[in-house]
Amino acid sequence: MATFEVRGLGKEFPTDPPVRALDGIDLSIGEGDFVVLLGPSGCGKSTLLDILSGLQDKTEGEVLFEGVPVAGTNSRIGVVFQDASLYPWRTVARNVEIGLEFRGVPRAERRAAAAEYLTQVGLAGFERKYPHQLSGGMRQRAGIARTLATEPAVLLMDEPFGAVDHLTRIQLQRDLLALWESRRRTVVFVTHDVGEAVYLADRVILLSPRPGRVHREFPIDVPRPRRKGDIELLALESEIYQALGRIEEQADAEL
Ligand SMILES: Nc1ncnc2c1ncn2[C@@H]1O[C@H](COP(=O)(O)OP(=O)(O)OP(=O)(O)O)[C@@H](O)[C@H]1O
Ligand SMILES: [Mg+2]
């Protein structure tokens, strides 16, 4: 069974005038897939992710998670946003524990889980620091640990590395792939960065400008582990850049 099955999905925001963000989206995401959503700014990537996670309602169509219609948030679906938005008054460990706290997990167990997931993201030893004592990349890692601590089956990530510097970003991409390869969670990842998309994905889904539709899908059949700058990845990157350029030109012409 697919992790997500999306059929005829549309979304209109009831603003004045209404904004049609998504239209006729059909998408099937298999268990363990690493899918990247790519597309021009405002094409509805975040909206699509929010609908998959149950944070937003759809206007029409069908969205199934493990065969069941999505209705509200689900603890098996973990979300990571661009900004880790840690609570500044809580230590790193207590930020990571928060989802477990909501579930009523006892303190000692929460502590142990926080330590384990902080180690997984390379933050062992930072448990007692506060968010302001971390770099941007470290805060992002802590945010990922917080999501992983709830042991979701699926990770939905909305430009999670958008706010960190280039080298940190490459490191975070590597770490994410290592995590994904060790546990094979399904990942749906939004980015603007075509290089990031081809490096990470099994499939890149290119969305058209608003209203977002599936414009084209690119399978990324490059064997793993992949190397940045690999010629096959560069060729795919260039092909996707060109497709993205064409749809952006089209959108400009229609304005
Ligand atoms: N809560 C809302 N109310 C009204 N319109 C909204 C709302 N959220 C998003 N939109 C509109 O829906 C469209 C899609 O927005 P969305 O944030 O999904 O785009 P995106 O592809 O994630 O863009 P970006 O790449 O800039 O993050 C935009 O036109 C946006 O203005
Ligand atoms: Mg967005």
UniProtKB/TrEMBL annotation:
Gene3D superfamilies associated with the record: P-loop containing nucleotide triphosphate hydrolases
Pfam families: ABC_tran (PF00005)
Domain ABC transporter as annotated: residue spans: 4-234
Keyword tags: ATP-binding, Nucleotide-binding, Transport
GO terms for MF: ATP binding; ATP hydrolysis activity
Name the record gives this protein: Nitrate ABC transporter ATP-binding protein
Organism field: Nocardia jinanensis
